[in-house]
């Protein structure tokens, strides 16, 4: 009994299982003096255990695109083991693969050759919950070609909900020939009112934007900064959701666009 309060102890168990004691006091009004009421003291001690359910760990997502014009079909390896992606040929795309958070090394080897024959260029990344990447193999294996060398580059990809009546397009410049080092991308859907969509678009860069659905956009690539497109591409009016649009050139230097859809499939758009 302390100053008219009798102690009652509430026992709690924290997340680490450590017992904590918190002294509570009940006031007894006895006409200004302490008095034994003769009442039975009831232990109101309560044990509260916090929910220690195991936290659910999410995954990262990665998909792969083969845009190296002189590379053969390849198998993909993750941390030295087969990734289940085999014989991926030039302009091929995949859907997203879920990977738990951690450190990863992505490598490619000619189809059927095994990891020991992997190209000595890898993509090494640390993935955390919620990461979404498109890993693109691009550039030339042949170092004697006057162009950009082979690389595997991760491009962060936004797959969140798209605004109503819009589609999201991620444009990646992966045309490795030196002639395409920097291009201007024009929107020439309205031929009488051309608009510079992505000026001074450098090789290896990525731009993401949203555009209205239901419009057959016409894009022009200008390689010599004279405001006159050197290659023109017609996009279908059926594009919805999230679309990857990759500028690439083949072994002969001919440019094209690869449209990469959410389900992992793709379509090649040739210049008109």
- Can you tell me the number of structural domains? 3
DSSP summary, beta strand count: 20
> What is the overall shape?
globular
Query: What is the residue-mean pLDDT, rounded to a whole number?
Result: 85
The helix content, as a percent range, equals under 10%
* CATH architectural grouping of the largest domain: Sandwich
What's the helix-strand series? Answer: EEEEEEEEEEEEEEEEEEEE
Quickly give the structural class.
mainly beta
Report the end-to-end length measured between terminal Cα atoms: 94 Å
Low-confidence stretches: 1-42
A few lines on this structure:
The protein is built from no helices and 20 strands. By secondary structure, it is an all-beta fold.
Describe the structure.
There is one protein chain. The chain is mainly beta and 272 residues long. It folds into three domains: 5-49, no CATH class; 54-157, Sandwich (Immunoglobulin-like), CATH 2.60.40.10; 160-272, Sandwich (Immunoglobulin-like), CATH 2.60.40. The chain is 0% helix and 45% strand. A five-stranded mixed sheet has the order 15-12-18-19-20, with no helix packed on it. A hairpin with a 7-residue loop joins β13 and β14. Mean pLDDT is 85; it is low at 1-42.
List keywords for this structure.
272 residues, mainly beta, 3 domains, Immunoglobulin-like, 5-stranded mixed beta sheet, 4-stranded mixed beta sheet, disordered N terminus
Present the secondary structure layout.
Elements: E1 5-13, E2 19-27, E3 47-49, E4 60-67, E5 74-78, E6 81-82, E7 97-99, E8 102-110, E9 123-127, E10 132-138, E11 151-156, E12 166-173, E13 182-187, E14 195-202, E15 206-212, E16 218-222, E17 231-234, E18 242-249, E19 255-260, E20 266-270
Parallel strand pairs: 1-3, 4-10, 12-18
Antiparallel strand pairs: 1-2, 4-7, 5-6, 5-8, 8-9, 10-11, 12-15, 13-14, 13-16, 16-17, 18-19, 19-20
């Amino acid at each position: 009994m302390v100053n008219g309060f009798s102690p009652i102890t509430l026992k709690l168990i924290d997340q680490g299982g450590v017992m904590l004691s918190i002294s509570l006091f009940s006031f007894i009004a006895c006409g200004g003096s302490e008095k034994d009421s003769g009442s039975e003291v009831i232990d109101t001690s309560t044990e509260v255990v916090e929910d220690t359910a195991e936290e659910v760990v999410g995954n990262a997502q990665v998909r792969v695109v083969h845009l190296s014009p002189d590379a053969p079909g390849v198998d993909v390896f993750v941390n030295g083991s087969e990734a289940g992606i085999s014989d991926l040929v030039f302009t091929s795309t995949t859907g997203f693969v879920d990977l738990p958070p951690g450190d990863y090394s992505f490598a490619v080897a000619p189809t059927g050759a095994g990891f020991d024959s992997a190209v000595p260029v890898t993509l090494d990344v640390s993935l955390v919950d919620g990461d979404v990447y498109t890993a693109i193999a691009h550039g030339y294996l042949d170092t004697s070609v006057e162009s950009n060398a082979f690389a595997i580059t991760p491009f962060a990809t936004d797959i969140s909900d798209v605004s109503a009546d819009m589609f999201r397009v991620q444009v990646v410049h992966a045309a490795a020939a030196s002639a395409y080092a920097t291009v201007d991308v024009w929107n020439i859907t309205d031929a009488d009112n051309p608009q510079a969509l992505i000026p001074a678009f450098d090789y290896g860069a990525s731009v993401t934007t949203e555009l209205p659905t239901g419009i057959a956009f016409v894009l022009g690539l200008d390689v010599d900064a004279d405001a006159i497109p050197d290659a023109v591409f017609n996009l279908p009016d059926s594009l919805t959701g999230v679309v990857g649009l990759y500028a690439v050139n083949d072994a002969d230097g001919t440019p094209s666009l690869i449209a990469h859809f959410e389900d992992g499939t793709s379509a090649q758009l040739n210049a008109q």
